[in-house]
Structures are given as structure tokens and as C-alpha cells.
Design brief:
alpha/beta, Rossmann fold, 2 domains, six-stranded parallel β-sheet, 10 helices, 11 strands
């Protein structure tokens, strides 16, 4: 039986925070980031306030505000932030107002202040293998993978989920590192056929218990990006009890990829400020 290690990302997050502090020192002032969220969403407000405290500890000035009323007012709000010289970066938290897509919001914010990697310029540069500002969760997965394996080159990696903030950008970054990448999604016919041959499985499907013992090969590394709130607490896609003794590493939910994602997001804010 294989000894299964539960991976937490706090140590790697602190390494990323170190880079962010260096960037802020080069900048010589506090980066300013505006965070917008939906009114009447206490869970998201609590999340944003935690982010504000964490950002403040790094020397980032993060302000939290609500989306303005109607969609046309929100569009004007985003345009105003794009033109505000005192704002270095803008985060638009989900859910967005009706009829406004994440890409619409990113276009209004502009590529310079987009720290979610969704503006067509930033996403296009990433897809072309050029220097860009990638989505934080995808970047966090790369940071974790490079820490967990001796070399990404040639590794068989399966990504479950083809979203614009995880699956697609992550696939591009891993291809640049010369991994062999398979992207699976809701229409994939035989998921275990793909995941069983993988050295690393990154799952971001949001389906509790999706990945069990029969889905993986011996010694597989499982990075669980999903965070689903259930009556039993926060869970991910991996059935931990089932894969214990067969997987070599399973990331903790939510303290595996989560802390690294936050750190990468703050690094994006600092880079946006420095680029301006």
C-alpha cells in the first residue's frame, strides 16, 4: 500500500508572497486594487474582507465595493475604474450582474488592470506561450506541480474541467513546460480511461466524490481545485477515503491550492501596479 501524503499549500504561498513583497519594494508604494462583488452576498463579502486583511499584511491597499445597480450602471462603474489613475488593478467577483460576462468585465477594465487573466490580450498572450498575467488558480496549480515533481517535462497530466480560469490556461502553461496534457470535461465519455494513465490529475469539476480509487493509477498525484460546501463541510472532487493508499499525494481542500491561489492573485496585483 502506498503512503498517501496530504498536501497543504501554505509554505509555497509564503514563497510567492516573498516575490510580491519584492515587487512592492521596487514599486515604492502600496499597490491599489478595487474589488467588486454582488450586494446581498454575505459569503462573498466575508471572503473579500478576508482577502483585504491578507492583502494589507503584504502592503496592498485592497478596497471592497458592491456592483452598482443596473447593468448599464455597472458598465459605467467598470469604465470609471479603468480610467482612475489611482487604481492599479480590478477584481470582479462572481456572481457578476445579469447580462455581464467575465470577458465583458475584463474588456472594460482593460488588460493593464485585469488581474484575473480574462482580458483577450492577456488570455491571448498566454495561449501563444508569451509572457502574460495568468489566472491565479491556474498559476497556483503550476507552482504546486513544479514543487511536487522533479520535472514536469514529459509528465502525463490530465485536467478535469475546461474553464477559462483553470482548465484552458493551465493546459497552455503545462504545454509550455513540455508536459503531455489531456483536458477532460462534462462531455468526456470515459473519464477513468484518461485519468488512470495520468501521473498527475488536476480536477476542477465541482462534483464531490468524482475521483475515486478506480480513476487513478498507483502513485498518482491529485490536485483538487474544487471547493464545494456540503452539510459535511467543504469538500472537493476527490473521494479522499477511496484514494488513500493508492494516490501518493492529494491536495487538501481548501488549504491545498487555495492559499497559493490567493498568493498568485496578490502577485498579479503587484505586477499590474509595477507595469503601470
Amino acid at each position: 500500500m502506498i503512503e498517501t501524503r496530504i498536501f497543504a499549500g501554505h509554505g509555497l504561498a509564503e514563497l510567492v508572497h516573498g516575490r510580491t513583497r519584492d515587487l512592492i519594494a521596487q514599486l515604492g508604494r502600496a499597490p491599489c486594487c478595487s474589488v467588486l462583488l454582488s450586494p446581498g452576498d454575505p459569503a462573498m463579502l466575508a471572503y473579500a474582507n478576508r482577502q483585504k486583511l491578507a492583502a494589507g499584511a503584504l502592503g496592498i491597499d485592497l478596497s471592497v465595493d458592491h456592483y452598482a445597480g443596473q447593468p448599464d450602471e455597472v458598465l459605467r462603474q467598470l469604465s470609471a475604474l479603468a480610467q482612475d489613475a489611482s487604481v492599479d488593478a480590478v477584481m470582479t467577483l462572481y456572481p457578476l450582474p445579469p447580462s455581464i460576462s467575465p470577458i465583458d468585465a475584463a474588456k472594460l477594465v482593460g488588460p493593464d488592470k485585469d488581474v484575473d487573466g480574462l482580458h483577450p490580450v492577456n488570455a491571448g498572450l498566454l495561449a501563444l506561450g508569451a509572457l502574460s498575467r495568468p489566472p491565479a488558480t491556474a498559476r497556483a496549480c503550476v507552482v504546486a506541480i513544479e514543487h511536487l515533481v522533479a520535472s514536469v517535462k514529459g509528465a502525463e497530466i490530465v485536467i478535469i474541467g475546461a474553464s477559462r480560469i483553470v482548465g484552458r490556461p493551465l493546459a497552455s502553461m503545462l504545454l509550455d513546460l513540455e508536459a503531455t496534457v489531456t483536458v477532460c470535461h462534462a462531455a468526456t465519455r470515459d473519464l477513468p480511461e484518461h485519468t488512470r494513465r495520468a501521473d498527475i490529475v488536476v480536477t476542477a469539476a465541482g462534483v464531490p466524490g468524482l475521483i475515486g480509487r478506480d480513476h487513478i493509477g498507483d502513485g498518482a498525484i491529485l490536485l483538487d481545485v474544487s471547493i464545494v460546501r456540503t452539510e459535511a463541510g467543504l469538500v472537493g472532487d476527490v473521494d479522499l477515503a477511496s484514494v488513500t493508499g493508492k494516490a501518493s499525494v492529494v491536495s487538501h481542500v481548501p488549504d491545498g491550492i487555495g492559499p497559493i491561489t490567493t498568493a498568485c492573485l496578490f502577485e498579479n496585483v503587484a505586477r499590474a501596479a509595477l507595469a503601470r
